[in-house]
Amino acid sequence: MIKLFLVEDEIVMRDGIKKQINWEKEDIEFVGEASDGELAWPMILETKPDIVLTDIKMPFMDGLELSALVRKELPDTSIIILSGYDEFSYAQQAVSLGVTDYLLKPLPPGKLLECIRRVQDKIEKERSQQGSVWSDELAREQKDAEKNLLFRALVTNDRPLKEILAMSDHLGIPISARYYAVMLMTVRGKDNAMPSEDLRSALSEIPEQIPGWIFFDRNENGFAMIGMANSKEELDSTKDQLIRRLKETVGQETDHTWFIGAGETVGRISDIGKAYYSANKAFSCRFITQLNRVVTSAESDSVRADLYSTRLTADQADAASPGSAGDGPALDLSRAVTDDSSREMLENFLRTGTLEEAEPFLEGVFRSIGENNLKSRLFLTYLSMDMYFTMVRFLRGLGRRVDEVDEKCGDINSLLKNHVTVDEIRNYLALYLKELILLRDHNTEKRYGKILREAVAYIDENYDSEEISLNRVAQRVGMSPNHFSSIFSQEMGTTFIEYLIGKRMEKAKELLRTTQMRSSEVAYRVGYRDPHYFSSTFKKMQGMTPREYRMSSQGQE
Question: Do residues 370 and 328 make contact, with C-beta atoms less than 8 angstroms apart?
């Protein structure tokens, strides 16, 4: 329902307008009247009408002054000016203020109502478009969430095939083919910054243009792509095409770096998890080799074998000599290096690596050492302690105590006193590394907690504004919309749109239970410009119309 406020200093004229139109029949709520702009202004701020119908010549504050205030504070309110003065200067000022219409008194019969109806149609059309935007945004966010669920189901294989196929069918994403492949990609800007929304959007559109590929935005963890085809040759061809397009797009940003890990090709949907693991193994090579390159799962071992090209210093070589303390086979010094560069790689992994990459990363480090070197107990001890101290420094940098992790993983000194195997030491370091990643992520969540509290408080305070949006709230808390959406969903257990709609529905139910407001009034109070869209959303969320809900609530009482 449209709300209208009338400002007219001539009482006969004001009463005539009030009685001339059947406001209820026209689906218009007459929310107030005043004899001049000064009296009208506080009432307009309180009632927030959709249309202000005002005379231009009035004492204390005229219609043009009032229109300027309305345009500044309530920019969506339409203004119709009435004037008995056919003066061009008034019309000019009215146009400059953005007045919707300008009518001359005396008004021919039906002229005012015709004008009001025209403005009413314009407002309702805008509201309908607003509802459409909301509907599109909700559908888009919901689809992104469902796509992420499909990705998780495909790579973890934790759901029955029938359910996975139903999920893909619901999303309109066909996944039946003879062969599958997975690629992982990271893109970073200057100072390791996340790529811009424009670049993320451009990258996400590329797989959509290449047959058989699905794109998944993993936010801070980069991007994932799953490809499928009915022959290996076709899959390899589209993969090469996709990589070329991705490289070209990122290459347009001169200050950005990128890395792609490509997994092995598999022949079953249930084996996509294996393809993902092999892609992750290749992807983890970004910590130990140069960026701006593609590493396949087949190449990952050779990349790791070339990891340490610097020889040990003289002191390290003496400490690791074959004759030391009954040590084992001779060391290959060209591969047995634990210098500053290798520590930097571990530190980089601790800053940005994921739990899934911990084991492939360590596997690569141990593989790069060389089999003979790993048989040397002295060198193995040295390597383990060097990595351990690097992780302890990172742990302290998080503001955490060493015994927090040692209690869970055990004491490394006690471990190394025994004749442990390479696998036992690697498993210990992997466990320690994973615990550090969990603590790092917990610290990050605590930081996000403050941001989310601010975001939720802003939503709770402004849920009734039709202008509130994901972009606006993200801007409020200083995050990109895509990243904020992801963090909000992860931490709140619901999407931004779902939370906002839930908040509006709870307030709507309260108003329906405790007031006699019409459904259209309730819609406006909770942030909806289009009553029909509100009713549709309410029914979808509650299983009944607003009217049915009110009757049900009254019946229960």
Answer: no
